[in-house]
C-alpha cells in the first residue's frame, strides 16, 4: 500500500532523556499503534506495544518505537491511568503530543 500521510515529528529531547513528540491522526482511522499496560521489564506504566496499521516500521523511526513508555499525553500524566483513559486522550483532536521514555 502507498502511504503519504505525515506521521509526526520529534519536537524536543529533555535532559532527563524523555522525548516530546507530536503525532498526527490519519483522516480515517487510529493513531497507528496499540498501548499496553506494563511490559516484560516493568509491571506498571503504559507502553507502545505494537503498530496497528500497515505502515512500514521505518515510518516511526526517530519518533517512536515499540516499548517506549508513554508518560504524558497532551500534558496529562498517564502512568497510573486505565487504558480506557489513555485511549480517550489519544482519540482527542487531530494531533497529540506525547512525552516518552
UniProtKB/TrEMBL annotation:
Domain PDZ: 20-101
Entry coiled-coil feature ranges: none
SUPFAM superfamilies: PDZ domain-like
Record field: transmembrane: none
Pfam families xref list: PDZ
Gene3D superfamilies hit by this protein: 2.30.42.10
InterPro entries reported in the protein's UniProt record: PAR6_homolog (IPR051741), PDZ (IPR001478), PDZ_sf (IPR036034)
One cellular component (GO) term of this entry: nucleus
Domain of life the protein comes from: Eukaryota
Gene Ontology BP terms: centrosome cycle; establishment or maintenance of cell polarity; regulation of cellular localization
Protein name according to UniProt: PDZ domain-containing protein
Protein source organism: Capitella teleta
Highest classification ranks of the organism: Eukaryota, Metazoa, Spiralia, Lophotrochozoa, Annelida
